[in-house]
Give the backbone structure.
Amino acid sequence: MSPNTSDTPTPPNIPDAPAPSGAPTAPPATGYRALLRNREFAGLYVSFTLSVAASTTSGFALGTLVSRQTRSPFLTAVSMYGATFATVLGALTLMSVADGGRPRRVLVRIQLLSLVGVAVQAVPGVPLGVRFGLLAVVGFFQALGTGARMGLLAEVVPGASYALARSLMNITSGATAILGYALGAVLLRYLTPQEVFVLAAALTGTGLGVVALTVRERSIRPARRPGLRQTWTANAALFAHPGQRALLVNLWIPNGLIVGCEALFLSYDPDGAGVLLAACSGGLLLGDLVVGRLLTAEWRRRSAFGLRLLLAAPFLVFALHPPTPVALAAVFVAGAGFAATLPLQERLLALTPDAVRGQVQGVESAGRMTWQGIGAALAGGAAQWLGPGVTMTVLAVASLAVTVLTRPSVVRAGARIRRTGAPFG
């Protein structure tokens, strides 16, 4: 789950991003309660929360099922995060539908597909190959759903309230993940994974109903029919812009490598994995609360580099196989580092033309999720040889290296962006 570049040592004041052309003209919300009084935002928010709860519980159930059947760290990690590989295919081929299709209709259909996918997972005796295939199909279309949701979000709240809205959604995602992992760990002591899938299907269906009843349809943004050519054209413009490239690298790779560390929790400590995942989500919640709610836009820019370092550094302790309290403290602190995503997303939105707003945000999300899948696969494969603890340390070092080595390009990109102030294209 924000576009002002944060790595410039002494950034000048940059005005807030202008509201998108289709955004409401009401004054920006100054708090979470004001946001929730917006009926459409409340619908997106509740639907998103239910979707996160369903994804968390079903992912934990599938990871547990695969771990029990295969005893393979690699397959367990891929079962929890492997669907993210398919999101990049959706982003590269059909992401223009996020702007060219009617966004509410797109979102409802994607959520319906997710409901079917988790319902099939609940059927006993489904072969593992079929389960992984379902993950791939749902992941492919999930990128479009994210693009449609975030495109709608940028329309239903004023532009100056976008960071606050994303902050609330990120905080809720963290809190819901804590409850989802904790609940999943408890439920799997008494229920089968298939029964937990039934619960996830019920949550997904409820989220589908909420968005269908509360969010109104928006007009199609671009004049041309969406398709493969339009998707490639907008993506080419996105990746040709040096500022966007620098932001995407920092949004994708450090996060993905640390998610790979999280994917090893089940292999590192099968009995304590739920608590470790919950602790990491708790840190994420706190970080997003502080960065999104309490910091100004300038301080968000200033904090992003340090937060990306904080994201990885605590995982270095796993080389020493620390006792459980130390491990919990480390992953809690590291979770706060995920808040670096918010100021980078804030900048990306400010530099994005209205006509491809959903597509760009969908590409950003798809790439971030894909790198989570890559991180999980790398972690699972390396853990076969190095063991989970050492592998987590290696991934943390790699994340720190990417953050440090790419900082100069992010600083240069930020300077160019402040000089021109122009979106890509």
Remarks:
- The longest helix spans residues 388-420.
- The chain has a mean pLDDT of 77.
